[in-house]
Amino acid sequence: MEPRQKRTIPHQSSARLIALTAGLLAFAPINSFASLNKNSVSNEQKQTQTISGTVKDENGMPIIGASISELNGDKTGAITDVNGRFSISVAPGTTIKVVYIGYSPQAFKVKGNQTTYDIILREDQQSLNEVVVIGYGVQKKANLTGSVASINSEKLESRPVSSVSAALAGTMAGVTAIQRSGEPGSQTGSLTIRGKNSINAAAPLTIVDGVPGSMNNIDPQDIESISVLKDAASAAIYGVQAANGVIVITTKKGQNNQKARIDYSGMVSSTSPTAHLNFLGAADYAMLFNEATKNENPNAAQPFSDEDIQKYRDGSDPIGHPNTDWYKEVFKKSAIETQHNVSLSGGSQNTSYMGSVGYVYQDGLTRARNYKRFNGRMNIDSKVSKWLSIGLNASAYRDITNDNYEGSASLMHYVNRIPPTYKIYNEDGTFNYNSMNNPVAVQGYATGKTTIYNSQFFGSAYAEIRPISGLSLKALYNIRHDAQDYRRFKAHYEYGSGNNIANTGDREGQHNYYNWNWYTTQFLANYLKTFARHHTVNALLGYEKVDYTYRYTKTSRKGGGSNDLQEALDALDSKSQKNEDNGLDKIQCSYFGRLQYDYDDKYLFEFNLRSDGSSVFKKEHRWGYFPAVSLAWRASEESFIKDKVDWISNLKLRLGWGKTGNVELKEDDVYPTVSTFAYGTSVIGNTLTTSMFESRYVNDNLTWATVTNYELGIEAGFLQNKVGFELDLYKKRTNDMLLRLPIQGVLGVEAPYQNAGSVENTGFDLNVYHNNKIGKDFRYSVNLNLSYVKNKITNLKGTDGPDPDNDKYWFKEGYAIGSFYGYVADGFFNTKEELAAGPKRTGGEQLGDIRYKNLTEGDNNITAADRQVIGKNFPSWTTGLNISLFYKDFDMSMLWQGAFDVDAYYIMESAYSFFNSGKVLKRHLDRWTPTHHNATYPRVTRNSQTNFATSSFWLQDASYVRLKNITLGYNIPQAVTKKLGIERVKVYLSGENLLTFDHLDGIDPESPSDTRGNFYSNIKKVTLGLKVTF
């Protein structure tokens, strides 16, 4: 492919931001603040006094990081240190508030003759005063009008996971987090919010510290909180990017007035597979092989004699009659994983800082697979003056994934296919080869090596000014640079003996380099003001521009060289070199605003509007507008409840409506591209000419897909919020979804996209909680979340049909995205009469084959018209149960996760007998025979494809309940740790995926739902961990 014409994008907004920041600093140089009017400072000091004290919980343990500030002030005055101590200068008579997430706030009035105050905070796990991070700001939980779920650092740090998506599993209603693989380096899980909104895309937007980012490369130990914006009322501020919900991640920062603090977290884990396919041993395999041969040809000779079968069974001839368990020969029983994180944080009165470094190593269950990650993060925030604050936030990571040339999927394919009657070694000690790759021979780096280097730099700088009370103006510039260096080398090797030799041919090398860049510019203006004590207005105006560039180059060589992995590509034949490069540029500009109104903490109103423009679309359709409005009534603040019904702690009703958008496009979907590769060269006349053609037609009228959301919510808490629930009912409808509709008479190229499809999701999210304390030393909390979603395609413009990438899935109006489509199984052909009378699909059916239902009238044949939707791959119901227990210095937590009304369709080696001359699953022993009609599986065959049609027979119930995590921790008493100069020490033992209840045999229920089984299983994990604070 020829390189695309690349467009240069001037970063004018970036230049303006740099100029603005420089101007702010020029007018307010740091050294000038030291020369403030000394008399005014002196006068101010005469009016204040310094008070100090401690903040502890009900057990007398110091609370670290509690915020101490004036009741009506908007800035934190002090933060408690590792001993829970604080010191602050205030005027006598000032009311001071003490706030810490997860505890009910306390307030006290400063008395002129008292300088020491000891504060006790009481835990409130459903604290309404907790501050929740939302789009471009924060908001008190009690005043939210949209549907926002959040999780704090304490919950994230309690589980020994290396990725954010794994940490979210089972924790939030409406958030479906499924870990598809336990392969080292598999950081990404399947993450959806309230179902799938489109055929084309379902991933939510991730915001990291205020700008678009990625959750896959963040150390969970560095995260302060995660908020999930589930409805349009909360997510519309992000406009076109928010169709699938928004995940807002805030990383940890240092605290003002906190001495330097060092935190260490380390863990070591032992991992093992949660499941693997169970195949027959050699004797049973040989027995069924004979039976399959006879089923296809009753007159055929028996391949294995009774003597052969007996030798396979008793192991008397391991060379001539081996019984090889290929899974055990290739995969380890367990592997080791380690993870470490060290952070330094602290701050003075006006400046705070935080820095951390982390390391992860994951050893694979196969010999060649391993993964390493190095990450670092730092931030600094400084209040330069009363009206100016500046800050820097930067992070970087690099990971390295090593694997053999074939990769884990190919290795698993060999393991699942090669029969147990094949030996590993020949008599001379060489590896055996018998028409199938020997997985023991090709594991490790004997066949070559694949190494993938991923790296990222993420950096932001901001300046914020406060020209008048309540008004803040903020400018931010962010750079995100991602890169991948992909290197793959295939060695030349041979193994086997005699005429059975495996020869891989020429050596091959491949080197690909990918480069992604995002440049984000933001300007935010925020105004917060309370009028006449009861009316609070919070207004936000913003501008955001994102410049995106993508480039890649690919180079390959073949032939020559040696098997030296260090030489790889450079040593191969340079004359064989092939090169390819390409790229993509796009820009998105956005204007947005939000207005929040609060009357007396009772009546809440919020309006959001965002306008997005994208270079992906043609000029006429470039801009989209995405509004949202929401209302809430805090009934519990009404006097008729607050003063008279003391057992109602919280009661709030919410109502919301809004629109978000979805691009769903790449740039070449709206701009035509020309390829030179499709047909190579052609002879025109006497000239060899390179053929060029337009790869697809384009549609000039393409525009945004939109998602309209309706929401009704209720929140209730009782008995001082010891028990309560949150319930959200919603309906989402996606319109103008992109489809490739067929065009009459157009041949040879892909049809263009059109805005034609519609999808609907309806459902509810329910969260029920209870927390209590029994006696002085024991407390507990229970949190149950339950979600239901019904997904339905409502309009395809008459283009019902198979998924172009997988014909087992069917897009059909009235059914869910990801629906399986096939025949309906109706038992087996048990008698000759049934076989003669029954409808047939191929005409070659025999007794013991699967019988299908004839769903069309007027014939006795099974045709494509008899297929229907038989299942779906996304759960209707998901649930999570989190139980936490605390007794003195001990704590224990359990997290259960479940999914229901979901199917899986496994094929080939993971389902069929003797597929592609392969092996047989143990469960096929319960097969149809002339004397056993009430069997689970059809007759065994070697070459017949009659029973392999996509049908309900092979569909499996993939519902499950899993003990996702259990952790037991112990906090060493501070009376002991302080003697060692250490503030706090915690040790814990944790287990992940230890117990699963499901209907699948040998396959993990979170694994991909349509596969031949050649995937790396999820893993069980037992972890010993340590947390230390200095």
The level 1 CATH classification of the largest domain is Mainly Beta
Percent of residues in beta strands? over 45%
* Overall number of strands: 53
Name the overall outline.
globular
Instruction: Tell me, rounded to a whole number, the average pLDDT.
Output: 86
CATH superfamily of the largest domain: TonB-dependent receptor, beta-barrel domain
Rg value: 32 Å
Low-confidence stretches: 1-46, 676-680
Class by SSE composition: mainly beta
* Tally of domains: 3
Distance between the termini: 57 Å
Tally of alpha and pi helices: 13
CATH topology of the largest domain: Maltoporin, Chain A
Helix content: under 10%
CATH architecture descriptor name of the largest domain: Beta Barrel
The biggest beta sheet reads: 22 strands, antiparallel, barrel
Question: How would you describe what is shown here?
Answer:
The protein has about 1050 residues and is mostly beta strands. The protein has 3 domains: about 50-125, Carboxypeptidase-like, regulatory domain (Immunoglobulin-like, Sandwich), CATH 2.60.40; about 130-260, TonB-dependent receptor, plug domain (Ferric Hydroxamate Uptake Protein, Chain A, domain 1); about 335-825 and about 875-910 and about 950-1030, TonB-dependent receptor, beta-barrel domain (Maltoporin, Chain A), CATH 2.40.170. It is about 10% helix and about 45% strand. The protein has 13 helices and 53 strands. The strands form 12 sheets. It has a 22-stranded antiparallel β-barrel. The radius of gyration is 32 Å and the shape is globular. Mean pLDDT is about 85; it is low at about 1-45 and about 675-680.
